[in-house]
Amino acid sequence: MRKVVQIIVLALLVTSCGKSDKGQVVGVKGKSWNPERPYGMILVEGGSFIMGKSDYDIAGLKDAPTKTVTVPSFYMDETEITNSEYKQFVYYVRDSVVRQKLAEAAEFAGGGAGAGGGNQGSIQDYAFKNSQSGNNNAQQNLTPYQEFSKHYDPMKQLLNWDIDIKWKTGEYPDQDYVMVMDEFFLSDDQSYNGERMMDVTKFKYSYKEMDIQAAARDKSGDRSNFVKEHDVEVYPDTTVWIKDFNYSYNVPMHNDYFIHEAFDNYPVVGVNWHQAKAFSQWRTLYLKNYKKDKGSRNETSRVESFRLPSEAEWEYAARGGLQSATYPWGGPYTKDDRACFLANFKPLRGDYAADEALYTVEADSYEPNGFGLYNMSGNVAEWVDTSYNPNSYEYMSSMSPNVNNAKNKRKVIRGGSWKDVSYYLQVSTRDYEYADTARSYIGFRTVQNYLGNTFNLNSNF
Questions:
Q1: d(CA 114, CA 137)
Q2: Which residue windows are coiled coil (predicted)?
Q3: Each residue of 201-250: pLDDT tens digit?
Q4: What superfamily does domain 1-81+237-461 belong to in CATH?
């Protein structure tokens, strides 16, 4: 009988861990990792290349001497971020801000759902989902985390996305709703043509980020000093179409370029470096929330961050696998064998339309480069996550180099634009703009790190 008990105990010990490792260290085995290519992105396999000007530096800036560097693999947007894609960010922030104000007003007003609004309901329809107002069961059935954790914030209330925002004045349900919505529109003396114009300065995206490089070198162990919160206005500055060009009639572009659906597939412009960074952070959060809602096993729903490319990553991607080429298509000419221009830029003196484009063109116009990326030269110049220093090539690392100084407000832009001459289209040409400045000829595209070894990729890519 004793032997039988011993055998049962031994069997329990072997099976108690879920699987037998025979006492050997086999590692923690999770799910197999199958990389998912983000929508609209191209995998750029990492490698080494000669960065800088291999051609004659006609401008004599001497800010891009040749240097062999190596970059890891990453995903990059196939095209520049379009108006349509950026509008998704803008509308998300706009609707979040409006719903927040409506929910706060509903909590202040009190009363049950539909109170005082007749058939149209009331502002209470927009109350926080976990609010006490009109919901006596909101604090029941708390999870242990919600009840006992010091990290749980009961004031972090959930917005109600189940009901549409009523934008038409004739559909406003009650007085409280009217007073909230009036805050988001300009006064009558600032509007004209009978239009009710929105005050776009009201819509800001707030997010936090940490300066990991500085935190890693700090010996105090207190990371709170390196966490910064940002409030960024999200709407593009459409006035750039006026301010960038004196004695020029660009009012139609000012009025329609971002709003009208005719320009949905055109690259967004009028966004500064901070707005491009905010979009990247929101894109990460948007995907993370989706995976969390889908019931990911990990509550944090780990998502590799979207971000702006470094200057080295951008140039490597722009070259499309061609070493020491002048342009993404090679060069040294900007026309093909049929005398057609290969990019959207200013090809002749005063003749912007010689390349069949007056301003910007659709983001997927012209032929892609060797990596499948469109308009790496021309159309709009692109923000990168690098500060401009004319001497940075001399001291930057040769492994995944990047020089980004928070105190240096000059940020690198690459690729040239529709209003630039061909020199700025060269993949090695460096230019800059101040981080808080928006232009009618600067846009951006994002990247995401690739996790794993690209040399073992399967046919899915």
A1: 18
A2: none
A3: 999 999 999 989 889 988 888 888 889 999 999 999 999 999 999 999 99
A4: paralog of FGE (formylglycine-generating enzyme) (3.90.1580.10)
